[in-house]
Amino acid sequence: MWGLRTVFHSFINLSGRSQGISRLNWVVRSGFRDGTIVTMRKIRYNLLEDDASVKDVIELVVSQGPKDEPVHILDLDDVVAKHQNWRRKLPRVDPFYAVKCNDDPAIVQTLIALGAGFDCASKAEIELVLQRGGDPSRIIYAHTAKSIDSLVYAKACGINLMTFDGEIELDKINQVHPEASLVLRIRYDSANAQVSLGKKFGCDPEHEAPQLLRYAKSLGLSVVGISFHVGSGNSDHECFYGAIKAAKKLFDYAQSLGYDLRLLDIGGGYPGDHDKPIDPYATTINGALQRFFPLKSNVRVIAEPGTYYVASAVTLIANVQSKRIVRTPQGTVRELMYYLNDGLFGSFDWLNPRKYPPQVIPGNRQLVRSREQFSTTLWGPTCDSTDLILSGMAMEELQIGDFLVFDDMGAYGTVLATNFNGFAKPKVMVYISRRSWEQLELEKRNRRTKRKGH
Ligand SMILES: Cc1ncc(COP(=O)(O)O)c(C=O)c1O
């Protein structure tokens, strides 16, 4: 379980073998150099000693030479830091992590230990959270179009909180899980989102929502709150103000029907890259809550952040596997094209084009390299010509076997990756610092004591 259990006892210190990793204790296992391993519920975590960092891990992976499969370095310290930051900046908003964004069990396990809730959208996501020890009362089944089978399963697991946005869904819930606590999802779209969800989910707040509340009332169902999702990859923090205001109007209408709504769910749509702080979002949201749902209203506020929690936690290490030089008819170089071991069918999301070049780590450090820049295209490995990572970007010349390091790769990467064309999905290596590991243990112990005290 959560015991800090060092599985391997014979550590080999590689100091001198590769600069930068000498502070880590590495163990040789199955021909693969790895860190001190701790396990919890069968997940293997590589433990980073105090002052070691992801940079050291990158050095280690690079020192092992190019591989066929891309590598994801998952830094759980980053997830822990994001959670603490959320708690500080949005103290009234209880985060329910959207599992769909990255369902790595180590992320789920870490967030359970930190006390976060979960937004699950399928039976498999619910199963994952429960298997990891999650509490059913800390799950919202946040899909407005649920299968009957999954509803039966949710009910059997004691999951009561769920969203809806239409009459037929209400009929289904009424038949299968009439005791459920229902959250009406309204449509409120950001004008600046990469993925607008309103086309598919959420009812019109003016015309449809009042009618749905009346219908739920006529069925005797328990509606407990209002939710919205402004869209993923949303760069407009101010849209939250309008969305919260629209929700407030429906709280008032529901009251006129005899409902006493107590839950506001402000969805996802927060940035997660390392250079995109949530501060402006927090300022807008906190201001809107104070105005429309002051503390004395006793309304509980939750959110469903996905991208925020995981985007910056994953660093991808890919390799250059092939290269083509495209020349003009006169013979001058027009463009350099590289074929990597990762692409759109792996870690990259075509809705989220790379705007800056990756860090380059030469495979052969002895080779003298020119500083000249060339127009560059990075392709993924498959035979599909849509498998394009970036093009027209100025980069130094790369060689076969060079490593390309992409940061902020944690959101909607592995969950969407396929084995198309037989290419390997990214291998995930999970890292956590001893400090964070011990903190998680402490949090878990505290919560256990608190539960016992109640
Ligand atoms: C219902 C719901 N909640 C939360 C999320 C997570 O959104 P984000 O990654 O933008 O935070 C999504 C993403 O599609 C979603 O559909």
Walk me through this protein's architecture:
This protein is 29% helix and 24% strand. The protein has helices spanning 54-63, 76-89, 105-114, 123-131, 148-157, 167-176, 208-219, 239-256, 279-292, 307-310, 434-453, and strands at 26-29, 32-40, 43-48, 71-75, 93-98, 117-120, 139-141, 161-164, 181-185, 222-227, 263-265, 300-303, 314-327, 333-340, 359-361, 373-379, 388-396, 403-406, 427-433. The strands form two sheets. Strands 1, 2, 3, 4, 13, 14, 15, 16, 17, 18 and 19 form an eleven-stranded mixed β-sheet that branches. Strands 7-6-5-12-11-10-9-8 form an eight-stranded parallel β-sheet.
Summarize the structure in short.
By secondary structure, this protein is of the alpha/beta class. It is built from eleven helices and 19 strands.
